[in-house]
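Table S2 (text version). Query chain:
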Amino acid sequence: MTFTEVIPYLYYPDADAALDWLERVLGFGPSTRWRMGGAQTKEADIHVGDSRVSVSGRAPAADEGGGALLIVHVDDIRAHYERVRAAEPTAAGDPPSKQPYGPTTFTVIDPWGYRWNFWEGEADPP
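Corresponding structure-token output:
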């Protein structure tokens, strides 16, 4: 058996607001939205480079993994930090910093509580 990819599936009570925020602030996209006959998005995919994240338009249940941390590799961490800061200054948090385990990182917590950790470089094994 060969694994080919992992697709995170995140729950947002308002998928349209979340997708708009992810596109505007983090620079993700484009997104594909399925409204299923209603006015609001029920299911969606949003591109993050060559990867994608699936989104559900409902609040998560208590047992559906609220402690997620999503790591996104970028090729220019400082440029991405400045992009986030320009789009939404309060979302940017602390500037990128070199970690003792290798990469340079910064974290954004979206308005729904998901932690997006941006990395430049790889972790160095101990």
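Notes on Table S2: The chain has one domain: 9-58+68-120. The radius of gyration is 15 Å.
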